[in-house]
Predict the structure of Fructose-1,6-bisphosphatase class 1.
Amino acid sequence: MTQKNQTLGEFIIDNQSSFQYSSGELSKLINAIRLAAKVVNHQVNKAGLVDILGAAGDTNVQGEDQQKLDVFANDKFIQTLRNREIVCGIASEEEDSFITINSNDKKHQNKYVVLIDPLDGSSNVDVNVSVGTIFSIYRRITPVGTPVTLEDFLQPGNKQVAAGYVVYGTSTMLVYTTGDGVNGFTLNPALGTFYLSHPNMQFPETGKIYSVNEGNYVHFHQGVKDYIKYCQQEEGDRPYTSRYIGSLVSDFHRNMIKGGIYMYPKSSVTESGKLRLLYECNPMAFLAEQANGLARGGRNRIMDIQPTELHQRVPFFCGSRKMVEKLQEFLDKYH
Ligand code: AHG
Ligand code: MN
Ligand code: MN
Protein backbone atom coordinates (compact mmCIF):
# COMPACT_ATOMS: atom_id res chain seq x y z
CA MET A 1 0.00 0.00 0.00
CA THR A 2 1.31 3.43 -0.96
CA GLN A 3 0.54 6.08 1.59
CA LYS A 4 1.76 9.65 1.59
CA ASN A 5 4.13 10.48 4.48
CA GLN A 6 5.17 6.85 4.82
CA THR A 7 8.87 6.55 5.52
CA LEU A 8 11.05 5.06 2.80
CA GLY A 9 11.83 2.15 5.14
CA GLU A 10 8.11 1.38 5.55
CA PHE A 11 7.50 1.79 1.84
CA ILE A 12 10.27 -0.67 0.94
CA ILE A 13 8.83 -3.31 3.29
CA ASP A 14 5.23 -2.75 2.13
CA ASN A 15 6.14 -3.00 -1.53
CA GLN A 16 8.67 -5.79 -1.37
CA SER A 17 6.19 -8.53 -2.26
CA SER A 18 4.93 -6.69 -5.36
CA PHE A 19 8.39 -7.01 -6.90
CA GLN A 20 8.50 -10.02 -9.16
CA TYR A 21 11.82 -11.47 -7.98
CA SER A 22 11.13 -10.62 -4.35
CA SER A 23 13.73 -12.18 -2.13
CA GLY A 24 14.52 -9.22 0.08
CA GLU A 25 17.85 -8.65 -1.64
CA LEU A 26 16.67 -5.75 -3.75
CA SER A 27 15.08 -4.16 -0.69
CA LYS A 28 18.38 -4.40 1.16
CA LEU A 29 20.08 -2.86 -1.83
CA ILE A 30 17.72 0.14 -1.91
CA ASN A 31 18.24 0.47 1.84
CA ALA A 32 22.00 0.62 1.32
CA ILE A 33 21.57 3.33 -1.31
CA ARG A 34 19.35 5.25 1.11
CA LEU A 35 22.09 5.10 3.74
CA ALA A 36 24.91 6.15 1.39
CA ALA A 37 22.71 8.99 0.09
CA LYS A 38 22.35 10.37 3.62
CA VAL A 39 26.12 10.28 4.17
CA VAL A 40 26.79 12.00 0.83
CA ASN A 41 24.04 14.53 1.53
CA HIS A 42 25.74 15.50 4.76
CA GLN A 43 29.02 16.06 2.94
CA VAL A 44 27.40 17.96 0.03
CA ASN A 45 25.77 20.32 2.53
CA LYS A 46 29.18 21.12 3.98
CA ALA A 47 30.72 21.81 0.57
CA GLY A 48 30.38 25.59 0.97
CA LEU A 49 32.60 25.41 4.04
CA VAL A 50 35.44 23.99 2.01
CA ASP A 51 37.55 27.16 2.23
CA ILE A 52 37.15 27.08 5.98
CA LEU A 53 37.58 23.35 6.51
CA GLY A 54 40.20 22.83 3.81
CA ALA A 55 40.08 22.33 0.05
CA ALA A 56 40.40 19.07 -1.82
CA GLY A 57 44.00 17.93 -1.67
CA ASP A 58 44.55 19.42 1.82
CA THR A 59 44.88 17.36 4.97
CA ASN A 60 42.16 17.59 7.61
CA VAL A 61 42.58 17.64 11.38
CA GLN A 62 42.48 13.85 11.60
CA GLY A 63 45.39 13.76 9.17
CA GLU A 64 43.13 12.40 6.41
CA ASP A 65 43.29 13.84 2.91
CA GLN A 66 40.30 15.97 1.94
CA GLN A 67 38.67 14.44 -1.07
CA LYS A 68 36.87 15.94 -3.98
CA LEU A 69 33.15 15.39 -3.55
CA ASP A 70 32.78 13.07 -6.51
CA VAL A 71 35.55 10.86 -5.14
CA PHE A 72 33.96 11.02 -1.69
CA ALA A 73 30.54 10.04 -3.07
CA ASN A 74 32.07 7.24 -5.12
CA ASP A 75 33.87 5.83 -2.08
CA LYS A 76 30.78 6.04 0.13
CA PHE A 77 28.46 4.27 -2.29
CA ILE A 78 31.00 1.55 -3.01
CA GLN A 79 31.88 1.14 0.66
CA THR A 80 28.24 0.91 1.76
CA LEU A 81 27.36 -1.65 -0.90
CA ARG A 82 30.54 -3.62 -0.27
CA ASN A 83 30.09 -3.72 3.53
CA ARG A 84 26.55 -4.99 3.27
CA GLU A 85 27.51 -7.72 0.80
CA ILE A 86 24.40 -7.35 -1.28
CA VAL A 87 25.76 -6.91 -4.79
CA CYS A 88 28.19 -8.97 -6.81
CA GLY A 89 29.62 -6.05 -8.77
CA ILE A 90 29.67 -2.28 -9.14
CA ALA A 91 30.50 -0.05 -12.10
CA SER A 92 30.97 3.67 -11.58
CA GLU A 93 31.74 6.76 -13.59
CA GLU A 94 34.73 7.22 -11.31
CA GLU A 95 36.23 3.76 -11.93
CA ASP A 96 37.88 2.69 -15.18
CA SER A 97 36.59 -0.87 -14.94
CA PHE A 98 33.96 -2.64 -12.87
CA ILE A 99 34.57 -3.82 -9.30
CA THR A 100 33.95 -7.42 -8.32
CA ILE A 101 32.45 -7.82 -4.86
CA ASN A 102 33.07 -11.05 -3.07
CA SER A 103 33.41 -12.16 0.50
CA ASN A 104 34.70 -15.44 1.85
CA ASP A 105 31.37 -16.71 3.07
CA LYS A 106 29.27 -15.42 0.15
CA LYS A 107 31.35 -16.81 -2.74
CA HIS A 108 29.83 -14.66 -5.50
CA GLN A 109 26.31 -15.62 -4.40
CA ASN A 110 24.76 -12.17 -4.80
CA LYS A 111 22.45 -11.62 -7.75
CA TYR A 112 22.58 -7.89 -8.50
CA VAL A 113 25.00 -5.47 -10.12
CA VAL A 114 24.83 -1.70 -9.62
CA LEU A 115 25.99 1.06 -11.96
CA ILE A 116 26.36 4.56 -10.55
CA ASP A 117 27.16 8.14 -11.33
CA PRO A 118 28.10 9.00 -7.73
CA LEU A 119 28.00 12.76 -8.21
CA ASP A 120 26.20 14.13 -11.23
CA GLY A 121 26.65 17.79 -12.12
CA SER A 122 29.76 17.96 -9.99
CA SER A 123 30.91 21.25 -11.51
CA ASN A 124 27.87 22.82 -9.78
CA VAL A 125 29.21 22.07 -6.31
CA ASP A 126 31.54 25.07 -6.30
CA VAL A 127 28.65 27.45 -7.00
CA ASN A 128 26.07 26.04 -4.58
CA VAL A 129 23.79 24.57 -7.23
CA SER A 130 22.00 21.22 -6.99
CA VAL A 131 23.84 18.00 -7.76
CA GLY A 132 22.75 14.38 -7.71
CA THR A 133 23.54 10.68 -7.68
CA ILE A 134 22.19 8.28 -10.33
CA PHE A 135 21.92 4.51 -9.97
CA SER A 136 20.88 1.58 -12.12
CA ILE A 137 20.38 -2.03 -10.98
CA TYR A 138 20.38 -5.29 -12.98
CA ARG A 139 20.24 -8.96 -12.19
CA ARG A 140 23.47 -10.62 -13.23
CA ILE A 141 23.51 -12.78 -16.37
CA THR A 142 26.40 -15.03 -15.41
CA PRO A 143 25.61 -17.85 -12.96
CA VAL A 144 25.77 -17.18 -9.22
CA GLY A 145 28.84 -18.70 -7.64
CA THR A 146 31.11 -17.31 -10.38
CA PRO A 147 32.76 -13.87 -10.48
CA VAL A 148 30.87 -11.19 -12.43
CA THR A 149 32.05 -10.36 -15.92
CA LEU A 150 31.70 -7.32 -18.19
CA GLU A 151 28.67 -9.01 -19.76
CA ASP A 152 26.72 -8.53 -16.51
CA PHE A 153 27.11 -4.77 -16.87
CA LEU A 154 26.60 -4.43 -20.62
CA GLN A 155 22.88 -5.15 -20.52
CA PRO A 156 20.32 -3.02 -22.37
CA GLY A 157 18.30 -0.65 -20.18
CA ASN A 158 15.12 -2.68 -20.74
CA LYS A 159 16.63 -5.30 -18.42
CA GLN A 160 16.94 -2.91 -15.46
CA VAL A 161 15.13 -4.07 -12.33
CA ALA A 162 15.41 -0.75 -10.54
CA ALA A 163 16.81 2.72 -11.12
CA GLY A 164 16.73 6.07 -9.46
CA TYR A 165 18.47 9.22 -8.39
CA VAL A 166 19.11 11.37 -5.38
CA VAL A 167 18.89 15.12 -5.85
CA TYR A 168 20.78 17.18 -3.29
CA GLY A 169 18.82 20.38 -3.75
CA THR A 170 16.91 22.86 -1.63
CA SER A 171 15.68 19.65 -0.11
CA THR A 172 17.21 16.25 -0.68
CA MET A 173 15.07 13.70 -2.46
CA LEU A 174 15.44 10.08 -3.42
CA VAL A 175 13.36 9.14 -6.47
CA TYR A 176 13.25 5.58 -7.75
CA THR A 177 11.40 2.89 -9.65
CA THR A 178 11.34 -0.89 -9.53
CA GLY A 179 9.19 -1.02 -12.68
CA ASP A 180 5.93 -0.20 -10.93
CA GLY A 181 5.78 3.59 -11.24
CA VAL A 182 8.03 6.26 -9.80
CA ASN A 183 7.98 7.44 -6.20
CA GLY A 184 9.82 10.36 -4.63
CA PHE A 185 10.92 10.63 -0.99
CA THR A 186 12.05 13.82 0.74
CA LEU A 187 14.68 13.79 3.47
CA ASN A 188 13.84 15.34 6.79
CA PRO A 189 17.39 16.36 7.68
CA ALA A 190 16.59 16.80 11.37
CA LEU A 191 15.55 13.15 11.69
CA GLY A 192 17.60 11.66 8.84
CA THR A 193 14.43 10.03 7.52
CA PHE A 194 13.08 9.98 3.95
CA TYR A 195 9.29 10.41 3.66
CA LEU A 196 7.12 9.60 0.67
CA SER A 197 6.33 13.10 -0.58
CA HIS A 198 5.75 12.49 -4.31
CA PRO A 199 3.83 9.23 -4.84
CA ASN A 200 3.35 8.00 -8.42
CA MET A 201 5.28 10.78 -10.18
CA GLN A 202 4.25 11.45 -13.80
CA PHE A 203 5.61 13.67 -16.54
CA PRO A 204 2.83 15.96 -17.71
CA GLU A 205 1.78 14.89 -21.24
CA THR A 206 3.38 18.08 -22.57
CA GLY A 207 5.18 21.09 -21.12
CA LYS A 208 6.73 24.46 -21.80
CA ILE A 209 10.34 23.92 -20.79
CA TYR A 210 13.22 22.95 -23.06
CA SER A 211 16.61 22.16 -21.53
CA VAL A 212 19.71 22.08 -23.69
CA ASN A 213 23.17 23.62 -23.63
CA GLU A 214 22.47 26.22 -26.31
CA GLY A 215 26.10 27.29 -26.32
CA ASN A 216 26.64 24.23 -28.51
CA TYR A 217 23.92 25.31 -30.97
CA VAL A 218 26.23 25.88 -33.95
CA HIS A 219 27.52 22.31 -33.63
CA PHE A 220 24.08 20.66 -33.51
CA HIS A 221 22.60 18.77 -36.41
CA GLN A 222 19.91 20.51 -38.45
CA GLY A 223 16.97 18.58 -36.95
CA VAL A 224 17.87 19.68 -33.42
CA LYS A 225 18.48 23.26 -34.56
CA ASP A 226 15.06 23.35 -36.23
CA TYR A 227 13.37 21.96 -33.10
CA ILE A 228 15.06 24.62 -30.94
CA LYS A 229 13.79 27.30 -33.33
CA TYR A 230 10.32 25.72 -33.09
CA CYS A 231 10.52 26.01 -29.26
CA GLN A 232 11.35 29.70 -29.64
CA GLN A 233 8.64 30.53 -32.17
CA GLU A 234 5.68 32.64 -31.14
CA GLU A 235 2.67 30.45 -31.85
CA GLY A 236 0.07 28.70 -29.70
CA ASP A 237 1.66 27.94 -26.30
CA ARG A 238 5.11 28.89 -27.62
CA PRO A 239 7.72 30.30 -27.15
CA TYR A 240 8.72 27.80 -24.51
CA THR A 241 10.92 28.61 -21.56
CA SER A 242 14.60 27.66 -21.60
CA ARG A 243 15.94 26.14 -18.37
CA TYR A 244 19.32 24.41 -18.11
CA ILE A 245 21.03 23.73 -14.81
CA GLY A 246 23.84 21.60 -16.22
CA SER A 247 23.11 18.80 -13.81
CA LEU A 248 21.08 16.07 -15.52
CA VAL A 249 19.43 14.95 -12.28
CA SER A 250 18.16 18.44 -11.48
CA ASP A 251 17.08 19.22 -15.03
CA PHE A 252 15.24 15.89 -15.26
CA HIS A 253 13.61 16.33 -11.85
CA ARG A 254 12.26 19.76 -12.71
CA ASN A 255 11.00 18.65 -16.10
CA MET A 256 9.25 15.60 -14.64
CA ILE A 257 7.38 17.82 -12.19
CA LYS A 258 6.65 20.76 -14.49
CA GLY A 259 6.65 19.19 -17.96
CA GLY A 260 9.54 19.64 -20.35
CA ILE A 261 12.17 18.12 -22.59
CA TYR A 262 15.89 17.57 -21.90
CA MET A 263 18.32 17.28 -24.82
CA TYR A 264 21.98 16.36 -25.01
CA PRO A 265 22.42 15.76 -28.74
CA LYS A 266 25.43 14.59 -30.63
CA SER A 267 27.13 17.41 -32.51
CA SER A 268 29.84 18.08 -35.03
CA VAL A 269 32.37 18.02 -32.18
CA THR A 270 30.95 15.23 -29.98
CA GLU A 271 29.83 12.45 -32.31
CA SER A 272 28.13 10.46 -29.51
CA GLY A 273 26.99 13.32 -27.31
CA LYS A 274 28.30 13.52 -23.76
CA LEU A 275 26.09 11.55 -21.44
CA ARG A 276 26.90 7.98 -20.47
CA LEU A 277 24.48 5.29 -21.50
CA LEU A 278 24.84 2.93 -18.56
CA TYR A 279 24.73 5.14 -15.49
CA GLU A 280 23.15 8.36 -16.78
CA CYS A 281 20.82 7.71 -19.73
CA ASN A 282 19.44 4.24 -18.99
CA PRO A 283 18.37 4.89 -15.40
CA MET A 284 16.80 8.22 -16.40
CA ALA A 285 15.10 6.52 -19.36
CA PHE A 286 13.62 3.84 -17.08
CA LEU A 287 12.31 6.51 -14.72
CA ALA A 288 10.97 8.58 -17.63
CA GLU A 289 9.06 5.68 -19.16
CA GLN A 290 7.73 4.61 -15.77
CA ALA A 291 6.51 8.19 -15.33
CA ASN A 292 4.68 8.32 -18.66
CA GLY A 293 7.53 10.13 -20.43
CA LEU A 294 9.84 9.10 -23.27
CA ALA A 295 13.60 8.73 -23.63
CA ARG A 296 15.24 8.42 -27.01
CA GLY A 297 18.73 8.50 -28.43
CA GLY A 298 18.04 9.93 -31.85
CA ARG A 299 15.65 7.54 -33.59
CA ASN A 300 15.92 4.65 -31.16
CA ARG A 301 14.57 3.99 -27.69
CA ILE A 302 17.41 4.51 -25.20
CA MET A 303 16.58 1.33 -23.29
CA ASP A 304 16.85 -0.85 -26.42
CA ILE A 305 20.46 0.07 -27.16
CA GLN A 306 22.81 -2.88 -26.72
CA PRO A 307 25.79 -1.43 -24.83
CA THR A 308 29.27 -2.24 -26.05
CA GLU A 309 31.39 -0.35 -23.50
CA LEU A 310 31.10 0.52 -19.82
CA HIS A 311 31.58 4.26 -20.35
CA GLN A 312 29.78 4.51 -23.68
CA ARG A 313 28.24 7.87 -24.58
CA VAL A 314 24.97 8.37 -26.46
CA PRO A 315 22.81 11.29 -27.58
CA PHE A 316 19.92 11.71 -25.14
CA PHE A 317 16.44 13.23 -25.51
CA CYS A 318 14.03 12.77 -22.67
CA GLY A 319 10.89 14.20 -21.20
CA SER A 320 7.19 14.81 -21.71
CA ARG A 321 5.78 12.40 -24.27
CA LYS A 322 4.33 14.94 -26.73
CA MET A 323 7.46 17.09 -26.70
CA VAL A 324 9.77 14.15 -27.43
CA GLU A 325 7.44 13.02 -30.22
CA LYS A 326 7.51 16.51 -31.72
CA LEU A 327 11.30 16.58 -31.60
CA GLN A 328 11.30 13.19 -33.30
CA GLU A 329 9.37 14.65 -36.24
CA PHE A 330 12.14 17.21 -36.73
CA LEU A 331 14.89 14.60 -36.45
CA ASP A 332 13.07 12.32 -38.92
CA LYS A 333 13.08 15.06 -41.59
CA TYR A 334 16.82 14.65 -41.98
CA HIS A 335 16.89 10.87 -42.32
P1 AHG B 1 29.07 14.65 -14.27
O1 AHG B 1 29.13 15.77 -13.29
O2 AHG B 1 28.64 13.34 -13.63
O3 AHG B 1 30.30 14.49 -15.11
O4 AHG B 1 27.85 14.91 -15.30
C1 AHG B 1 27.67 16.16 -15.91
C2 AHG B 1 26.73 15.97 -17.08
C3 AHG B 1 25.26 16.14 -16.77
O5 AHG B 1 24.86 16.11 -15.46
C4 AHG B 1 24.91 17.49 -17.34
O6 AHG B 1 23.60 17.54 -17.79
C5 AHG B 1 25.91 17.64 -18.43
O7 AHG B 1 27.04 16.93 -18.04
C6 AHG B 1 26.25 19.06 -18.64
O8 AHG B 1 27.12 19.15 -19.71
P2 AHG B 1 27.48 20.53 -20.41
O9 AHG B 1 28.26 21.31 -19.42
O10 AHG B 1 28.28 20.11 -21.62
O11 AHG B 1 26.18 21.19 -20.79
MN1 MN C 1 26.82 12.79 -14.63
MN1 MN D 1 29.57 12.28 -12.05
Remarks:
- Residues 272 and 314 are 5 Å apart (CA to CA).
- The first helix runs from residue 8 to 15.
